[in-house]
Amino acid sequence: MQSNQREIYIESIKQRLSPERFRHCMGVEKAAIQLAKRYDVDLEKASTAALLHDYAKELPKQQLLLLARKYNIVVDDIIQTSLGLLHGPVASWLVKEKFKITDVQILDAIKNHTVGAKRMSKLEKIIYLADLIEETREFSGINTIREAAMNNLNEAMRMALTCEVVYTMQHCRAVHPNSIDAYNDLVTSQKEKENEAI
Ligand SMILES: [Fe+2]
Ligand SMILES: [Fe+2]
Fold first, then answer.
1. Helices and strands (H, E) in the chain, number of each type
2. CATH value at residue 127
3. Which ligand is nearest to the CA of 137?
4. Cβ neighbours of 74 (radius 10 Å)
5. What is the residue range of 109's domain?
6. pTM of the complete model beyond 0.85
């Protein structure tokens, strides 16, 4: 990426987000670039998606809802009770318009970083994971996921999704079906590979 483009993204998120969230985004970029190098993914795409993934995170919930209507984003029953989940899909539309980003991989990685999705690309998995394990995050079990992320992308994703789904359940919140789809996708494709090897 032209370094001035990256600087424009950084300046924009610095203006929009709290200092803590800004530091989080810079941490996500660092982790995403590390993973992109490890898994041979375009570094510029990783950097852009990471810097912009929380672009809509601090918008009021009612504004997220208005923007979701504007962009025809599906607001299902679960999202209705947890409007914050819209910050991924809304961000992908906002950055598409504001920065004229047309790369579908970048836009999907931003869109799906909140709950995951079926058949995620390597870039989507990298942004999902980097969001969870970047250096300012701290939770029990994080180091196991950090280690796994550098060894096996799919295994780390399985662990990360398990962690998020369990956390959501423990807090009596509804689990979005996209997270279950993403999890099942990883587990079934792993089983298929094992069966092929027999
Ligand atoms: Fe987010
Ligand atoms: Fe984030």
1. 11, 0
2. 1.10.3210.10
3. 2
4. 8
5. 3-197
6. yes
